[in-house]
Request: fold
Amino acid sequence: MPATYNGVGTLYYGKRNRSVRIAPCRSCGRVAHLESYDTRLWFVIIFIPVLPLGRKRIIDACPACTRHFVAGADEYEQARQLQVSAAQEEYRRSPSPLTALKLHGTLLAFHEIEQAESLRQSARQKFPTDGEMLVGMAAQLGQAAVYEPMAELYEAAHRLRPDLPEVRVELALRRIDSGRLEEARKLLDFLEAPGAARRHSLGPLDTLALHYQKKGRHQEALEIAQHLLDELPRIGQIHRFRAFVARSEKALGRYDSMLPARAFPQRVLPR
Ligand SMILES: [Zn+2]
Reply:
């Protein structure tokens, strides 16, 4: 980032090809009007630009924390044209869920949000039953912090492919966020099957159990904790897990704890 000291240093001057989108800043997380534009970096003396140091593309400048990405403006424009037209050409030549996904990702990478949206519409008409394509596009939207259409795509993908674990996890985490814990638990039922830890991360169950506890639903919190303990016996020695279980057991007045005896010494155990 440019900086000046006593008016001597570097500064950006000018804003061309400006675009603004509302999205969470990757740095501070606040939702803000992120601004992208071409500018020129100058060497300045007493804030007077004296030496041009090249055109830059400022990407997603956040008004709250001022963090942003920088690219060489010419290189950025060249890369944008090359990659977007290559992906468009490929999709035109052989339209498939995979080439649609590639084009969609490329458009999002270069902040062509509206083009990406119209591609989604046409690709969904062309491949109406391809749940995997929807999941891929949803993941790309998540990476680009375009969350509204992402949520809608995950819901649509779930209607087509209710079996896909990553979709169930995505939807469950959203249900948890909005306090719909029963729905979340149903979506995560595959993680409560015996042996689930061998094929999946049980992290979402951990999150669910925490939310049950926070709501005072200690019975459900302990049911899930018992399953976590069965699947991953080593967590029985982890302090955070033990404290979690103890809290709910105490709330229910249970004195025969599910927790194993504490092993010693604690500090050599993997966390
Ligand atoms: Zn920020």
